[in-house]
Amino acid sequence: MSVEFSSPVVNARSVAQPLWFRLRKSKGITLSVLMCCLALLWVSPFIWMLSSAFSASTFGEGMASVLPRFPLTLDNFRDAWQSADWLSLYANTVIFSFGTFFVQLITITTAGYVFACHEFRGKQTLFLLFLVQLMVMPVVMMVPNMMTLKTLGLLNTLTGVMMPYFTSAFGVFLMRQAFLAIPKELEEAALMEGCRWWQVLYRVLLPMCWPSVLAFATVSITYHWNEYLWPLMMLNDPDKQVLTVGLVSFAMGAESGGQWGTISAGTIMVCLPLMLAFIAFQKQFLRSFGFSGIK
């Protein structure tokens, strides 16, 4: 009578493989749950803001509530609109953001074209000096900029607020890299056809760098739309204030009365134009960042 014994190695393998697959599957599930929790944590302030803005205002209640109180209402938006001169704030912010970007578009494309397509003595040194600006915090330059603008008589003016941003080291670097990626033969062909340098730049090269321009426009307009400290220091006239400064002044008065719904409604009114622009052009934005190499 023979007795057969099963190999312990085979049994161990048969048990280990299903265990390995189970551990691998549970690891994937755990990672997905962790990412969902992080996403929920990141979006929770925005959810609270929406909930507070559309809920009926109740003194002393609902500040930490994520769930809205029914019935939903637009009273908070009406109260916020009546509490500040939003048309003037929007107009000043649009002038500040888009006016700065349009001037930057001229300066960064011209400088980027010179650094990419022309040779001159000290070119690399000058370009490195441009890049050094990326390592200087804007706060460090606020007092020198204010003293310069005071000498020029531009304090408490939108032009004075925009002037320190009329050029951008990041924009010059971005456009230089975009122009370097364009074949040199296109520029030479345009020059042979009788085009001047500015015609070559703005009619031949710049249309081919549209993704980089759109990427820089997104960064520049968003940054200046949300700028707070520099306009606060420069502008004393309430008629010249921008949205961020006006929102803080409005929120300080509403916070003393516990009007969190009104504060949330005002915050949404400040963020709404940028959110609508991103929703409408999100494919173009993401494509532009992909083509320009920004991560």
Automatic annotation (TrEMBL):
Give the source's domain of life in one word: Bacteria
Among InterPro entries, the record links this protein to:
MetI-like
Gene source species: Cedecea davisae
Enumerate the spans annotated as ABC transmembrane type-1 domain: 90-281
Read off the PROSITE patterns from this record: ABC_TM1
Q: How does it sit in the membrane?
A: Multi-pass membrane protein
Record field: transmembrane: 29-50, 89-114, 126-143, 163-183, 204-225, 260-281
Q: Does the keyword Transport apply?
A: yes
PANTHER family, per the entry: ABC TRANSPORTER PERMEASE PROTEIN MG189-RELATED-RELATED, LACTOSE TRANSPORT SYSTEM PERMEASE PROTEIN LACG
Record has Cell membrane as a keyword: yes
Q: Where in the cell is it found?
A: Cell membrane
Q: What is this protein called?
A: Carbohydrate ABC transporter permease
Record-stated family: Belongs to the binding-protein-dependent transport system permease family.
In which broad location class does this protein mainly occur, judging by the first location in its UniProt entry?
membrane
Which keywords does this Swiss-Prot/TrEMBL entry list?
Answer: Cell membrane, Membrane, Transmembrane, Transmembrane helix, Transport
Q: Name one Pfam family in it.
A: BPD_transp_1
